[in-house]
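Chain and conformation:
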Amino acid sequence: MTDVVARAAGATAVEVYKDGRSLLTSAGSRIAYVKDLKKNYKKLMQEARKLWELRDGLETEISRHKISQVTREWIVKVEMITREVGELETKYNDEKKNPWRLLRVWPHSNLSKDMADKHGQVQILLEEGKLKRGVLVAELPEPVRKIHAPKIEDNSSLHKVVEDVVSFLDDKQIRIIGIWGRVGTGKTTIMQNLNNHKDIAKMFDIVIWAPVSKEWSLKKLQGAIMQRLKLNVESTAGIEENAWRIAEELKGKKCLILMDEIFDLIDLHEVMGIQDNLESKVVLASRLRDICKDMEADELINVKPLSDHEAFNMFKEKVGRSIHFPGIKPVAELVVRECGGLPLLIDRVARTFRKKERNVSLWRDALNNLRRWENTQGMDEVLEFLRFCYDNLDSDAKKVCFLYGALYPEEYDIYIDYLIECWRAEGFILADESIHDKNAFRDARDKGHAILDDLINVSLLESSEKRKCVKMNKVLRDMALKISSQIGDSKFLAKPCEGLEEPPNHEEWKQASRISLMDNELCNLPNALECRDLLTLLLQRNKNLCAIPEFFFKSMCNLRVLDLHDTSIESLPSSLSALISLKGLYLNSCFNLVELPTQIKELVQLEVLDIRGTKISLVQVRCLIWLKCLRISLSNFGTGSHTENKLGNVSRFVSLEEFSVVIDSSKQSWDKIVETIATEVASLEKLTSLQFCFPKVNCLEIFIMTSPAWKKGSCLTFQFAVGNHDSTDFQILKSFDYPSYNRLTLVNSKGVNPVISEVLMETHAFALINHKGASRLSDFGIENMDNMLVCLIERCDEIETIINGDVITKGVLECLEDLLINNVLKLESIWEGPVHPGSLTQLTTLTLTKCPVLKKIFSNGMIQQLPELQHLRIEECHQIEEIIMQSENIELESSSLPRLKTLVLLDLPRLRSIWVNDSLKWPSLQSIKISMCDRLKRLPFNIVNATKLRFIEGQHTWWEELVWEDDVVKQRLQPVFHPQRAHASV
């Protein structure tokens, strides 16, 4: 019993000991919790705030995007633990408010322990949330979604367009860029490469590819953008709500929208509220130039077909190695020519020819099919697009005007005025003569320009590099010929530039309504033909054609246009009288043509006659008093000593609206009769356009004082040459030929005459050549130059400065775009005195050549007035030491010359500085050419400015001797440096 009690007592003692230890341990831990209460609270709240911040970010995304259910469940857990943390925080604050409760160890320790436990739960949720965030990032729209983009060859025309767009996107003043051009020129390829461009990815937070289909709608377009942004697309939401949601999503973000294949005007604000997001930019591509304009594009880029070299390289890359097989390459070159430089067609055709491998026979057969537009994969697709542009023209007049262009060779420069005259003669464009009888011809010409503009707008015709011309692409010409062959009354016989030595057969002449045999080797023509349906006959530049058979014109009673210019004919046959419907007759540059038959008086419908460069006397055509447009040379007034046959002829043309007298080498007796001729010209009341040479200012004064047409003010378009011209002046005038500009050229004159100042008020382009008696351009009255767009000053040895700012009180030359100064020996500066705000603000091109004493280009305050200057060329100005003088441009802003793109510096032996340091940004500078500037040892560039610079040309030795602040700068620019070739023309 005693043992039992002892064992029991011992066991009890052990248990008591264990419990004591447990109690002590528990008490110790609780005391520890009490000590860590404040610490646990801080830890809990710090982690909780992180959790809440993460939750808030996720909730924001969830409110706008499609988010997975698992992420939503995590949000619910966070909401629960947030309430629990809030309860613990409330308890803790209560404890702090009642210090006596700190003596209550047990509840105090429970609170601390709960906080520690909750901290662990918060950490777990936080880690889960971070994982969710990673998943969510994948669920959110990526900054750039790469798409397949055909490779663009470096330095190609398409590559240049891409780089130009990137350059424009970096300009803060440009928000919308329009890319336009005919189908197949590579617009989509350009847009795809822009989407993937690494520099664009750095510029924008998000790039959105949003092609627009033919069946587009505002809602579909919004849906595509919202899908790209991973916004919830609700079918019940309206257009305004969707636009608001898109705008909200893009708020504070730099966004680029790429919109391809736009057919109709799209209100971008209605789609996405773009006006509210100044950081967003848009690049749009369309076949229609006017769509880009209607959508308020700040910059327009016309995508033209590839050059022959580029086209062949593209075809070669697509078709593969078989092109190098003997006999294949010559055929391949002909295949590429048929594609007209259209990348889309080249791509499709190359796929077809790739299958022909090395079989030359198959290649030749496929080429013949291509020429006939048969069995060529991809051709139908391209033709469908092209035919759509034609079918979509809104008038039959525009359609026939387009088809008419197929009479000329592919890529041939067609003079615009001439083309419109042919359209008018054919009856495609008719002015409302009942309303505008007095100026019917001009009104028709204006309508013709409107039609031409529409055809250019839809890319069926394209502007030429020559200002006054347009041209037609080969593929479009082929399409036009095919369409014309399908129209019953519009059969074309078009064989220009084919080396023909013999004319077509009689049946071909009989069936055709329009014939073009220009630029061939024809020596003869058929004697008698049946051509009653013939409306246009183009035989120009058949230089071997010396005679026209007597009865050649006999059946051509419906002929409207006859062009024989630059042939070797000596006379025209009497059958000319049969051309009773003829409206346009072109005989210019028929240097051997001496006389016209008397039957020319039968041409009672004739409106346009051009006899420039012929030996025809004006007397021979004086009977054509119904002419509306007459072009002659000085020599057509005759070269004899008697004047009775030279006078009284011009005034007979009472219906004349356009009169052109061009200067040629024959000036005998002109001075004797010009005053009388000027008086006769002044009597032409219907005159709307005049090109005329006045040997002396007083002759111009006679015209100005007596002409009713001039007194109408701006109604008269003019090209006046005043003074005695020599052969050198002819070349200057030729280069100074701006279309549609009122032009005044003052040559070899003296002083300042008030009549010149009066004409200057209406002048757009002014050339001052070899003038005496004026030391400044402003001597002619700067207030008279408000409409001046172009100014050329050449060989004026007394000119010392262009503008004297001390005598003016407001901005001047506010419209001037081009200023060209050449061989002005005493020119010291362009501007002297203060430069008033508004002056020169539209100047885009400044060229200074052979000004030996010129030292100062940009005077104080001048650079600030040149926000639009894009091209600067300085050549053979041997006193120039600084392009931008530091002494004249103290505290020059780093953003000066923001639009300068090209800089050409040639033969400047004293030049040592473009700008004193590298502080200027040069944000638009793309190209520099420097030659014979041996003292120029530094360029004003560093590692961050001139970001668009893509081309530097100069002598290799000069480049190697340049001094650099840092080798990193040279390494950056070395790839864009191109050594100047020996005897290279710059």
Remarks:
- Confidence is low (pLDDT under 50) at residues 11-25, 640-644.
